[in-house]
């Protein structure tokens, strides 16, 4: 089977998530909300490409979302 090419939508989604991650990380280092937004992009990618080979973004989102929620409630420090 031929491997599928990554489309422009994949690149745009990944770039958007990466920029969101960098932006919120840079402007709120001690605030876990940046991680919440990063997880939103990861979940968006996961559901958009559910049947593609990029499902691992969803697992990143699940782990990140748990960390973000714990961070928001002050259980852990990010």
What does this structure look like?
The protein is mostly helical and 78 residues long. The protein has a domain of 54 residues. The longest helix is centred in the first third of the chain and has 20 residues. It starts with 7 loop residues before the first helix and ends in a 6-residue tail after the last helix. It comes from Kosmotoga olearia (strain ATCC BAA-1733 / DSM 21960 / TBF 19.5.1).
Report the β-strand fraction as a percent range. under 5%
* DSSP summary: helix tally: 3
Provide the succession of SSEs.
HHH
Biggest sheet character? none
Shape, per Cα inertia axes: elongated
**Helix/strand structural class:** mainly alpha
User: Approximately how much helix is present in the residues?
Assistant: 55-70%
Mean pLDDT: 60
Ends: how far apart? 42 Å
Count the beta strands.
0
Low confidence ranges: none
Q: Compute the CA-based radius of gyration.
A: 14 Å
Keywords: Membrane, Transmembrane, Transmembrane helix
Protein name: DUF3796 domain-containing protein
Transmembrane segments: 12-28, 34-50, 57-76
Annotate the secondary structure layout.
Layout: H1 8-27, H2 33-48, H3 56-72
Helix pairs in contact: 1-2, 2-3
What's the quick description here?
Keywords: Membrane, Transmembrane, Transmembrane helix. This protein is mainly alpha-helical.
